[in-house]
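sry for the spam today, last one i promise. struct tokens for design, 336 residues
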């Protein structure tokens, strides 16, 4: 039986990948983070290269207890299939209990077409907006030729033996609506708890990609919050209040307008609206951290991943604590 722990005590965050958006970059991997608590491993998001970055960080899947998906945009889930397909041979096989994966359920219906754009049709019209559990089932189906060969010829375990996937169920009374109320005022609620960590979630503003969650990890050593992708919203402050570390996305809002100078074009208007309402500007990231009273702000999910005129440190003009501009494989201790 393989061990389910790595060496070391305490809590630390490892930024596996720090680039936002569905682009392949040379200096930053896709968005993914690790939380290591007294040797147990927890993952937040699975952007491209997450499993390779885990190896570079000296971490192993044999220690993995649970994984958390903030939302189902491709840059946050591109490596999910590899969790099984490569994990079979790199630590998952032989674990005592299935790794629990938590993420959004279905939004219920496809989002409306952006104003001024023609009806494009649907991909997968029979199931156009699967939640995490259905997404994983579709992935296993897509890789069934490989999976069945590995199981029957290589003696690998069935995916259900290794991964237990859960759509997050919202508490009763939360006034969520995919179109009109994607992040209504609410209190955080617990989605996972074991002897090392309590993980709470809250809805955040990333419409039309909904539901979208932020997660808070409370441990004996301290607390850390991951914003996922979000525009400015009160729920983010509610979740992060009093946390020791806040890992928060940031977008260079000046870069957005340089990228789309012709706002008369419907596609340009849609992209500007998405980037400025479903993401958080550099100044606003600092303001969120200040309002929440966190000790350390870590900027992550940086858009653009490469900037000719980086402005990330301007967040410090709005936040009096410690500011870290995240880079791949940074390690951040979490303590009270």
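last one done:
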């Amino acid at each position: 039986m393989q061990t389910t722990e790595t060496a070391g005590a305490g809590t630390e965050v490892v930024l596996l990948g720090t680039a936002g958006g569905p682009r392949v970059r040379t200096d930053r991997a896709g968005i993914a983070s690790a939380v290591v608590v007294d040797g147990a491993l927890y993952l937040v998001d699975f952007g491209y290269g997450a499993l390779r970055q885990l190896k570079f960080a000296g971490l192993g899947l044999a220690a993995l207890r649970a994984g958390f998906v903030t939302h189902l945009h491709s840059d946050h889930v591109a490596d999910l299939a590899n969790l099984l397909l490569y994990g079979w041979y790199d630590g998952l096989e032989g674990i005592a209990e299935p790794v629990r994966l938590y993420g959004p359920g279905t939004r219920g219906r496809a989002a409306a077409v952006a104003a001024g754009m023609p009806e494009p049709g649907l991909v997968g019209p029979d199931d156009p907006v699967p939640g995490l559990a259905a997404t994983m089932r579709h992935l296993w189906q897509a890789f069934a030729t490989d999976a069945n060969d590995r199981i029957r010829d290589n003696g690998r375990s069935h995916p259900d033996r290794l991964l237990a996937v859960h759509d997050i169920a919202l508490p009763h009374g939360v006034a969520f609506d995919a179109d009109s109320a994607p992040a209504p005022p609410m209190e955080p609620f617990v989605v996972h708890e074991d002897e090392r960590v309590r993980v709470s979630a809250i809805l955040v503003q990333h419409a039309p990609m909904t539901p979208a969650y932020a997660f808070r990890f409370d441990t004996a050593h301290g607390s850390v919050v991951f914003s996922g992708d979000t525009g400015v919203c009160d729920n983010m402050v509610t979740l992060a209040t009093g946390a020791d570390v806040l890992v928060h996305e940031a977008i260079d809002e000046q870069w957005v307008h340089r990228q789309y100078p012709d706002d008369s074009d419907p596609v340009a208007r849609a992209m500007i609206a998405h980037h400025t309402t479903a993401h958080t500007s550099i100044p606003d990231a600092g303001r969120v951290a200040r309002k929440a009273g966190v000790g350390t702000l870590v900027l992550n999910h940086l858009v653009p991943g490469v900037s000719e005129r980086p402005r990330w440190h301007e967040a410090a003009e709005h936040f009096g604590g410690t500011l870290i501009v995240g880079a791949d494989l940074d390690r951040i201790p979490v303590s009270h």
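The two ends are 35 Å apart (CA to CA). ok im logging off now
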